[in-house]
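Researcher: I'd like a structural prediction for the single chain below. Treat it as a standalone chain; there are no partners to consider.
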Amino acid sequence: MSENHFGVIGGGSWATAIVKMLCSNQSKVSWWMRSEKSVQHIKEHRHNPKYIRSVEFNPDQLWLSTDIQETVRKSDILILAIPSAFLQDVLLPISKSDFQGKVIFSAIKGIIPETNEIPASYLSNSWGIPDNKIGMISGPCHAEEVAMERLSYLTIGCPDKSLAAAVAEALSCRYIKTTVTDDLYGTEVGAILKNVFAIASGICHGLGYGDNFQAVLLSNAIQEMERFVDKISPVHRDVKCSAYLGDLLVTGYSLHSRNRRFGNFIGRGYSVKATMAEMRMVAEGYYAVKCVMDLNQKYKVNLPITEAVFNVLYEDTPAISEMRQLSEKLA
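Model: Treating it as a single chain, here is the predicted structure.
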């Protein structure tokens, strides 16, 4: 895979962490971000001025650009690492022909709101990318711990397992271990749902619920995830593996989790608008929960935790009463 050139689309903490991993193995990485100011800062000061600033880059390893067409043109394998709500806007300058022959891996952990599709389906249906050239990257892995070079694990999914293995090799390093799977749709849906459940965990923490309840909440969450994933993509899978349960646990419990933090603000009485202003970061679960509820009109899966989060965030149901009702449904 060394002959293939990697490009990363995104300027946030997750994109920054992915570029750091790739730079461990690649001589050159193309990196697109929206802000020209950030591009110049990295060139001059060797770190992203806004996200995980402790990560130091060698500018000689990077082709930095605010021209997404240039980044796409230079890259054989593109990794999309931007919030799902902004994907369509970011890709506006791109045409289908620009993606021809490219391999696209999504590191997006949300549903595309305009089409209500997971990234893999969106890339296939809207951009005509062959299924065997679409992949995904998920955790359990927080960008903040990658920055500190703490041992972390990635799940690399693609119908073409040889391609997944090659991308896994490009991301692997001393502090990054990887697992390969061909369960692309399942792991992608799981990565989306765990953000919703992390918001629920944060709400409960903000309301004063303790560890005992959190354990019950997340054990029910993995069951809810299994029901929904199996309905959407009915193949044999083990949701007790790191890609599902591990990713759920780290997102539900970790202080690095922006979705848990988002929920914590809500539980403490902040409005959604005030929470967003306070965080100044995107919590994918906020957008995902509405999309999941819309999708579930088709699948009719019992999703009590997802429904509770939706009611609090979109129906203005008081968090204290909604979580009290939810507690009666859990076992």
